[in-house]
Amino acid sequence: MTNKTYDLQKDERYLHLLAQSFPTIADASTEIINLQAILNLPKGTEHFLADIHGEAEAFQHVLKNASGNIKRKVNELFADTLRDSEIRDLCTLIYYPEQKIELVRQCEEDIEDWYHITTHRLVQICRDVSSKYTRSKVRKSLPDDFSYIIQELLHEHSSDKDKTDYVSAIIATIISTGRADDFIVAMCKVIQRLVIDHLHILGDVYDRGPGAHTVMDILKNYHTWDITWGNHDVLWMGACAGNDACICNVIRIALRYDNMDTIEDGYGINLLQLATFAMDVYGNDPCTEFIPKVINATLDEKGKQLIAQMHKAISVIQFKIESQIIKRYPFWHMQDRLLYEMINYETGTITLNGKEYKLTSCNFPTIDPKNPDKLTKAETLLIEKLHHSFTSSEKLREHIFLQLRHGCMYQKINNNLLYHASIPLNEDRTLRDVEVMPNTFFKGKELIHQVGLMIRQAFHPKPVGEKNKAHDYAIDFLLYLWCGPDSPLFDKAKMATFERYFLKEKETHKEEKGYYFKYRDDEAIADMILDEFEIKGENRHIINGHVPVHVNKGEQPIKANGKLMVIDGGFSEAYHKETGIAGYTLVYHSRGFELVQHDPFSSTEDAIKRGTDILGTKQIVEMNQKRIKVADTDKGTELKLQIEALEELLYAYKHGFIAERERKINLKV
Question: Which of 225, 299, 324, 664 lies in disulfide reach of 199, CB 3.0 to 4.6 Å?
Fold first, then answer.
């Protein structure tokens, strides 16, 4: 009793604040009952996706079909009563309701009958997917226009003879008032929303595919999500923050994949001046090494040549600016990337690791061999304009700040550790000390935390005086995170971009991976990292992406005896031939983990008109004997703390430490 009284005195200010929300014993008791009930519900379904790389259509479809989860539920409910074609049509309606209704209206002879049948089916599906949530949570997910009606339909069964006429009358009235289309669309979107409780993105929204900006717009409007930043995300952060080397890399990758949609259409950045500069400087250069890796079918020979010239122009500038930044920070240990200084411009050769190689081309009209890193006046003017375009793009800034608000370098969620790429290790399997700032080393969890702080510092308002140096360094450091040897987002000996362009010898193209990637299949390494991040429990896991899993070569995404899951299956179309699949979704529901392996997505148009879907192969990763409840999750831990606080408030009310208050009643005139 004494200890309890002491606790109440110590927490008195907090309890008084809590009393404002729960002013009476009845209010506090009701909330405790409510929270205790929630603890016993099945946990919501989490979806994990990695390395989307601008594939907006496929990404959106995976969200709409919940990685095949909606089709599975439709099959469970209607497999005995509907043909395969009808199940396919019903699923397509749920994924793309507006477009599918338009097609139905064109061919359906009795549209009212279709409305009746379809509405009943959608109510059944919605009832099923909402069963693991409280009525309050379901209600919050409903559109205002139809909230009351949907609630009535979800909680009243037409099989109840006393309610048959009631339910039928609701549906008939929806149809007779001309709201059937809107109601069906609303129901489909509610199903989509409820079937995925939370979405985790394991990094790399950007680059390669055409629609990274569209992916960000989808996420902006998504009900609940988070992201652990990937190296390509941080590269775009660098471009937005004004790191000129990052700006060059972003443009170079877009040109390499003949995909300027995100830069030009998404963020309104004009590349005309780059095109003009490239034609002036490299007009007589075939730029063979810079022909796009992926070529748009509509691109003619002249267009292909222009992209190659632009590609070379921005690459040459990129290597100059990278060299300038690397020289500012010797402790980065990237002197081996000062490649322009290793070229013999008379013989057209380069010396790497004591061995001389012949360059495929040595046409560098803007390079002064005596000062190879110096930009020409024309290059300087071009970079200044590109710098302004990237840093002043409101849409890009909006999307980058959206990533900053929803993301971080790592997350701990429900006994799972999420990060994009790596935790740097030494050869002896210990955590590697990384020099983040001069003579300032971090490793393991503290390294990842400090890197996250540095990224955020790059977007703080620019200070004046001495503190400005720290701000400028934070912006420069974003380049290190992209290609530095000990970066937890890269973790390779080098980024061999120059070598892949200008040297035929494959030995020079090799990017030696860090020890993390060599040891990550070892369960002891996974346990060490999980311990470092204080992830507890029997069923604990590391989940990340970054390195595509080559399924066609027999590689497995599940490593370290099930404790580490690599879910980069090559979402990007450019990786499909390399990996043999088109991405993964890891699904964590109340029964356990399932890994869904995706086949390539044809197009949204095919999905609507022909009912094509992303076919998925499910792999059971880990199943539990009993269902996981909310009480077993991080959310459950929060709720238990809330219950504990409310019980203290009850004690305070009952023993006179805090007086109950009358509820305020708002009278509307």
Answer: 225
